[in-house]
Amino acid sequence: MNTTILRKIGSGLECDVYDCGEGVCYKQYRNRSRRWLPQLTTVRRLIKIYQNAKLAAQEGLGPEVYGRDSNGYFTEIVKTFNCHMDHPDCSMICEECVLGYTADEREYLAFSLQELFGIEIEDLHSGNIGRKDGKLICIDFGIGISVPIPVGI
């Protein structure tokens, strides 16, 4: 697996995403603190996010996961629908019609993730949803998912 970072291709509240070539990306987590959000990326939290991503991948609900280091992890690149919800012309109709997935598909993904993790996923918007092998998958297992830390960590 190529671990050379080529260029930044995205970012979120918790991490920056870098292209490593050959369909692989690196999600590098930032250590930031906000009043409403406690310390984000302790090693323990990063391990939790990584374990969540691996579990979702095993169940076909997330991209392949290739490994981690102390700052992030490597995963398969899956293009997201990435609707800009703050645009004045954007609405749920945008997600259902323009982006190429239906409300039923999104609800099925949300239900499947809830069944897998035992909680409702709060951050399942079009920027965190992609399509792999014809099926919707989630690409973000950080802030919007408060899954208990796996046993043995």
Stretches where pLDDT is under 50 for at least 5 consecutive residues are: 35-40, 86-93, 146-153
Biggest sheet: strand arrangement: 1-2-3-5-4
The total of beta strands comes to: 7
**Which class best fits the helix and strand makeup?**
alpha+beta
Write down the oligomeric state: single chain
Give structural notes:
The chain has a five-stranded antiparallel β-sheet with strand order 1-2-3-5-4, with helices on one face. Strands 6-7 form a two-stranded antiparallel ribbon. The protein is built from three helices and seven strands; from the N terminus they run βββαββααββ. The model is unreliable at 35-40, 86-93 and 146-153 (pLDDT under 50). It is globular. It has 153 residues and is an alpha+beta fold. The protein has helices at residues 43-58, 92-98, 103-117; strands spanning 7-11, 15-21, 24-29, 65-68, 72-76, 129-132, 135-138. It has a single domain, classed as Phosphorylase Kinase, domain 1 (2-Layer Sandwich). β1 (7-11) and β2 (15-21) form a beta hairpin.
Quick take:
With 153 residues, the protein is of the alpha+beta class. The protein has a single domain, classed as Phosphorylase Kinase, domain 1, CATH 3.30.200. It is 25% helix and 23% strand.
SSE blueprint:
Layout: E1 7-11, E2 15-21, E3 24-29, H1 43-58, E4 65-68, E5 72-76, H2 92-98, H3 103-117, E6 129-132, E7 135-138
Antiparallel strand pairs: 1-2, 2-3, 3-5, 4-5, 6-7
